[in-house]
């Protein structure tokens, strides 16, 4: 297309750079479309592979937030088998899109992994699991871990209640025994 003689040089340069960017990004958009098609078919591994290649070549690519759901969903597949890998995919999803449904799901996954790690170390903290369920209501693993944690907490509370009741009963028995011993001692003194 011939140059427009009426355009100022700055506008002409801008149009030339836009055209060059379109050519440069044509392959990138083809890779993005290929990855999105694979994601739609359920091939998350294939989609993530395409997206990782695309991001390696074009880290600040426009429309990159479209890749976030694939990274989030792929991360969820590793929650039980490889939490570190799941964390990496969740974080990449958040890097690509800090807002929206995929971001909420990624934050929920990270909260679940935090709660799971605490539980594995014997720390009973249900806050990360509750946060996970606020963000991802259908997170079955978080729900099961929270239920198990609450059950253990209730069992501990019941055990503490039984121990406290036993200590109270023993204390009352000791007081009564002491009072009886004191009474008997006074009675012996009177008789003597």
The count of DSSP E runs of length 2 or more, i.e. the number of strands, is: 0
Largest sheet: none
Rounded to an integer, what's the Rg over CA atoms?
Answer: 33 Å
H/E element order: HHHHHHH
State which percent range the strand residues make up.
under 5%
Structural shape: rod-shaped
Detailed description of the structure:
The structure is a single chain. With 192 residues, the chain is mainly alpha-helical. Helix content is 79%, strand content 0%. It contains seven helices and no strands. It has helices spanning 9-41, 44-57, 68-76, 83-96, 101-120, 127-135, 140-191. Helix 5 (101-120) runs antiparallel to helix 6 (127-135). The longest helix has 52 residues, at 140-191. The protein starts with 8 loop residues before the first helix and ends with a helix. The mean pLDDT is 88.
């Amino acid at each position: 297309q011939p140059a427009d003689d009426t355009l100022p040089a700055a506008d002409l340069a801008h149009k030339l750079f836009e055209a060059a960017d379109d050519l440069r990004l044509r392959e990138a958009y083809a890779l993005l479309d290929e990855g999105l098609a694979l994601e739609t078919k359920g091939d998350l591994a294939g989609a993530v592979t395409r997206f990782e290649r695309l991001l390696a070549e074009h880290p600040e690519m426009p429309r990159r937030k479209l890749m976030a759901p694939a990274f989030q969903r792929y991360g969820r597949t590793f929650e039980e088998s490889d939490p570190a890998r799941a964390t990496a995919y969740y974080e990449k999803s958040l890097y690509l899109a800090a807002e929206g449904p995929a971001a909420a799901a990624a934050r929920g996954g990270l909260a679940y992994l935090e709660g799971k790690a605490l539980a594995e170390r014997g720390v009973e903290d249900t806050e990360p699991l509750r946060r996970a369920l606020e963000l991802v209501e259908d997170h079955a693993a978080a729900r099961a871990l929270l239920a198990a944690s609450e059950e253990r907490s209730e069992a501990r509370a019941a055990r503490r209640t039984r121990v406290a009741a036993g200590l109270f009963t023993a204390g009352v028995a000791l007081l009564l025994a002491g009072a009886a011993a004191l009474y008997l001692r006074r009675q012996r003194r009177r008789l003597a």
